[in-house]
From TrEMBL, chains A, B:
Gene3D superfamilies: CoaB-like. This is Phosphopantothenate--cysteine ligase-like Protein. Keywords: Ligase. Transmembrane segments: none annotated.
């Protein structure tokens, strides 16, 4: 048994797995019939529980900005979107407004049984376009939200999504922006209860999480256009690691980014080329987001690919 | 140097520390003049970074429901509130509505330059009372929000808050509901860059985080009414551990709760007594929250204490 098969064999699916599988299947079949292009976006970090009754876990840094912003741009370009994200990470549209920002935009007109609530006129300008895009996506059933928390939830959902996406063949784009844990604590080495501090400081022995790109590219969605991300904090190894990944898994594109500069620039690495996508100082001051450029460039690549790989 | 002094000596304050200190000082001085009772609520989990350029960290489970709900009930009972919470954990009032729930409540009336947005009539009933309480707290300046992420941010903020709270003497209540990490990775043993998976699976050697209750009770707010929480997953040790904590730190009250049943019952442990506070099945079905009972009971205890410890 390969490493990834063993992982599935030793980790149970999440409790809402069957419900999500039905949603994914229905969503894919409906849009396949309509002839749409589809993108699966994974977003946010995954956790690795340290105890069965989980109080503590190891987490990966990711607010989910890249995935949530990219979802909006893919929708704008006519793709339908499966937004597979970490519970509580940022979501498209709502990401622009925190809970307090929402409350502060509202005006209460207290008139007993005729009480009404309106958005303050000066907030309408900001909220209206976002709300219109949100409603368009919701009402057209153009986006499906599914959530994970642990790395094992992510494994189960990703495979299920791929199984449904396979019918799109080359028209499926996978935009794997989630920050997946590299390490985990095997189920049989995990304590049942909260680790007690009285027993002194513990040592946590981690194991490597299997890489899913291999079965994903070779078995699950062999015709799809697959894009993965590489995040590093040390610039000197970024392109080398991106190229290594591409050579190993044979997918289409790796987008490399540095933790410190990820909002200004990324590097697109394909089998034969590498080029930087970045925002100018002026674009940043105008509030442009790098995800706008990333998505435009990815779609150009996908369109090129479709021309040469259409059945 | 004691363990906690050493921790401050080896961890820098967060970048927004001075700003928060000024806010805390202004808030406390203003309300002290007005003769208010004040509660400091800490809420949400803390993180322990595993790398200086943080990609990975160990986290403690806590959505922040208990702290956020309790803040609402303390405000309702006339306390002013410092809500010191983990960034992105739940906040009072906004906790009732996720981002999508907010969007779904809104109706867009697209009329060009006269576009308006209103809350749908059937959502007004739910939103209006929450919005009214939120506005009352905001407009009266009755709640101050300050945030932390890492355990060391929490350390710095908590001490600063206590230094400002001390002027309230017995009228200050500390409601320490945050789930603070017990373990951390010392700064000098932390790698600078993201741990590389190519080097094999790492072992993480953790150290014990010093307990702040000792200096807090003895030095920082010696006259205040201090309530701490104890969360366990193993019921058999809960009361014993709560009592141990009380004997060790000499504060007023420990509220013990089990991870699995924390929404239905808790146990109040004082120097001489212990009693359960719980919701009946009917109360739960009616949507009552256990924080309502917890806060009422804590305030009764605080009021009793004030009678015998007034200067």
């Amino acid at each position: 048994m390969s490493h990834w098969e063993e992982f599935y064999a030793t980790h149970l699916p999440p409790t809402d797995f069957e419900d999500n599988r039905i949603l994914l299947k229905e969503f894919c079949e409906r849009h396949k019939k309509a002839g749409e292009r589809i993108v699966l976006i994974t977003s946010g970090g995954t956790t690795v529980p340290l105890e069965h009754n989980t109080v503590r876990f190891v987490d990966n840094f990711s607010a989910g900005t890249r995935g949530a912003a990219s979802a909006e741009y893919f929708l704008e370009h006519g793709y339908v979107v499966i937004f597979m994200h970490r519970l509580k990470s940022l979501e498209p549209f709502t990401r622009h407004f925190s809970g307090q920002k929402f409350m502060d935009m509202l005006e209460l007109h207290d008139q007993g049984p005729n009480t009404s609530i309106t958005v303050k006129p000066d907030s309408v300008d900001v909220l209206a376009p976002v709300l219109a895009s949100y409603k368009h996506a919701q009402e057209g059933g153009r986006v499906l939200y599914v959530t994970f928390t642990t790395v094992s939830d992510y494994f189960w959902l990703l495979r299920a999504a791929c199984e449904c996406l396979a019918i799109f063949e080359t028209k499926a784009l996978l935009f794997l922006a989630a920050a997946v844990s590299d390490f985990y604590v095997p189920s049989n080495e995990m304590p049942t209860h909260k680790i007690q501090s009285g027993a002194g400081a513990p040592t946590i022995q981690l194991q490597l999480v299997p890489k899913l790109l291999a079965p994903l590219v070779n078995l699950w969605v062999p015709h799809a256009f697959v894009v993965s991300f590489k995040l590093e904090t040390d610039e000197s190894i970024l392109i080398v690691k991106a190229r290594d990944s591409l050579n190993k898994y044979k997918h289409k594109l790796v987008i490399g980014n540095m933790l410190q500069t990820r909002r200004q620039k990324v590097v697109f690495v394909t089998k034969d080329t590498s080029f930087e996508v970045s925002l100018t100082r002026e674009q940043m001051l105008n509030g442009m987001e790098i995800e706008d450029s990333i998505v435009t460039n990815v779609i150009t690549n996908h369109t090129e690919f479709l021309k040469t790989h259409q059945y």
